[in-house]
Amino acid sequence: MSAIKKIVKTEGNELHLVLPDEFKDKEVDIEVSLHKVESDNPEKKEQTEEEWRQSLREFYSQYSVDLSNYKFNRDELYDRDDRS
User: Fold this and answer.
1) How far, in Å, CA of 30 to CA of 6, rounded?
2) Where does 1-84 have alpha helices with state H?
3) Nearest-CA neighbor of 26 among 2, 54, 61?
4) Cα–Cα distance for residue pair 49/60, rounded to 1 Å
5) Of 25, 20, 26, 24, nearest to 6 (Cα)?
6) What does pTM read for this prediction?
7) Spatial distance between the Cα atoms of 34 and 53, rounded to a whole number of angstroms
């Protein structure tokens, strides 16, 4: 089963569609809907880099990890079990 998905801009209320040869003389199912473009949403504004960073800080501020007693042991790094 072949499918084609293509976003096209209409001019007026007519749509001209050219199909590949494999669709020739076959029944096809056509579904048409409006394509939502983000710029159509006036409430959504472009974030500046600083606003984006601030939103990340706010999101990750709810998570905290206490590493004050953590000590990296290099010997454990190369200590491997040979579990196969």
Assistant:
1) 12
2) 49-60, 74-78
3) 2
4) 17
5) 20
6) 0.34
7) 34
The predicted structure's pLDDT at residue 22: 87
Closest by Cα among 15, 51, 56 to 33: 15
pLDDT of the residue at 46? 75
Q: Is 83 exposed, middle or buried (0-12, 13-18, 19+ CB in 10 A)?
A: exposed
pLDDT tens-digit readout, 1-57: 677 888 888 888 888 888 888 888 988 888 888 877 665 555 556 778 989 899 999
Our CA angle for 40, 41, 45, nearest 5°, is 115
